């Protein structure tokens, strides 16, 4: 059995920071499932299917990365995929407290699946999907923040 990791998130939209973690994770694990999860605390701009298509487009050069949507618990999904790890990106100290809470709950649900944190490249340490959406909404240049297909999708979304 090869090493399998789950890289979960809402990816609304996928940013260069997300892509950095996914790409680096694909070098470490045999298979990385990028799992689009529903976050009840967030109101997404893109549908789950739209996010999946964007992720498939921007990761098409990574043959060991698979994009899927899941509506249940992350740990149930990880068990279904026989994953040994959850791969999470950390931008700054402010991310740590939230991630520690989630990891602690996940360990209660299944302590056989490890959570591994990868520090985001410094150039993306400030980057979030929320910031990208805000800049795009007001017509700001997001070309260094997201892959080109995502910038185009955001432009179209805000024209609607």
Instruction: Compute the number of helices.
Output: 6
* CATH homologous superfamily (4th level) name: HUPs
Structural class: alpha/beta
Strand order of the largest sheet: 3-2-1-4-5
- What's the CATH topology name? Rossmann fold
Oligomeric state of this protein = single chain
Describe, in plain words, how this protein is organized in 3D.
- By secondary structure, the chain is α/β, with parallel strands linked by helices.
- The protein has one domain (4-125): HUPs (Rossmann fold), CATH 3.40.50.620.
- Helices cover 43% and strands 19% of the residues.
- The chain contains six helices and five strands.
- The protein has helices at residues 16-28, 48-58, 74-80, 93-109, 129-137, 148-159, and strands at residues 4-9, 31-37, 65-70, 85-90, 114-119.
- A five-stranded parallel sheet has the order 3-2-1-4-5, with helices on both faces.
- The longest helix has 17 residues, at 93-109.
- The protein is globular.
- It starts with a strand and ends with a helix.
- The model has no long low-confidence stretch (mean pLDDT 92).
Relevant terms:
ATP binding; PPAT; 6 helices; 160 residues; alpha/beta; cytoplasm; Rossmann fold; globular; EC 2.7.7.3; magnesium
